[in-house]
Amino acid sequence: MYIEGSVVWERFKNPRQYLEERKLTERWLRAAFVAKGGKPRALYPIYTVLGQSKWLLREADATTMATTAEIKIPLSTLKECDVSFTYPDSMISHWFGKDKPEEFYQPDCHGIVFTLSEILSIVEAKGLPEEGWETNTPSHLAHYIEAQVWNHELLSKYRNQL
Q1: CA nearest to 55, candidates 30, 92, 24
Q2: Does a structural domain hold residue 82?
Q3: Is the pLDDT of residue 162 over 60?
Q4: How would you list the strands of the sheet with 83-86, edge to edge?
């Protein structure tokens, strides 16, 4: 899956390391989500983006665009117990929350798993990232709110949109 120079596929350069970090991140996500009342029905989430990501549209290369698709899922489909959120991407949020890099770390959003109501309150106050929400995340890292859907059945009817 590795594609040199691709902002999306570059992360697979070392697949073993990526998989180890992904598993650590998913354990953290699940535990934090359950601690906030989440009821994951799957062992791992399906990763999505809240809203449309200007960063992803700007940074995606031709291979990424050819191998991905956009579907729109109304937030009303999701319940508080079925979805969690991070800013930015969960692996980056986990990394920043753990290592707290001085130049990038934001304690109010990094290393935190948000519920649906929490993230909606943040978006209402700040907007979406890149739409008034000032961050100091490096430009080569994701600038979006990631949504982790823990009930895969909720998404099944949207597969036909592909």
Answers
A1: 92
A2: yes
A3: no
A4: 46-49, 146-149, 83-86
- The answer to whether residue 102 is domain-embedded is yes
pLDDT digits (tens, 9 = 90+) for 67-102: 777 788 899 999 999 999 999 999 999 999 999 999
Q: Name the residue range of residue 118's domain.
A: 10-161
**Residue recorded with tokens 């994701």:** 142
Q: How many CB atoms lie within 10 A of CB 82?
A: 23
Count the neighbouring beta carbons within 10 Å of the beta carbon of residue 121.
12
Assess if residue 125 is contained within a domain.
Answer: yes
110 token code pair: 């990094």
Which two three-digit tokens encode residue 65? 């665009």
CB 26 within 8 A of CB 42: no
Domain count, the chain: 1
Is residue 1, in this structure, part of any structural domain at all?
no
Residue corresponding to tokens 């993230």: 119
- Alpha-carbon dihedral of residues 27, 30, 34, 39, nearest 10 degrees? -140
Rg of the chain over Cα atoms, rounded to whole angstroms, equals 15
From 71, 78, 88, select the one nearest 135 (Cα to Cα).
88
Are 33 and 126 in contact, with CB atoms under 8 Å apart? no
